[in-house]
Design goal:
50 residues, 0% strand, rod-shaped, 1 helix, mainly alpha
Length: 50
Amino acid sequence: MVKRIFALLLSMLFLAGVTATLTACNTVEGAGKDIEQGGKAIKDEANANK
């Protein structure tokens, strides 16, 4: 009985970790795209003011 509960808790912890990891990857990718767009806007503005 205790082994079954422990296995269930361990499985749930593993699934939570996998879900968090996949979510973090999408968040970092999105942040990278936002930063890239911000850099492009700064570059374009600098070129316009030469």
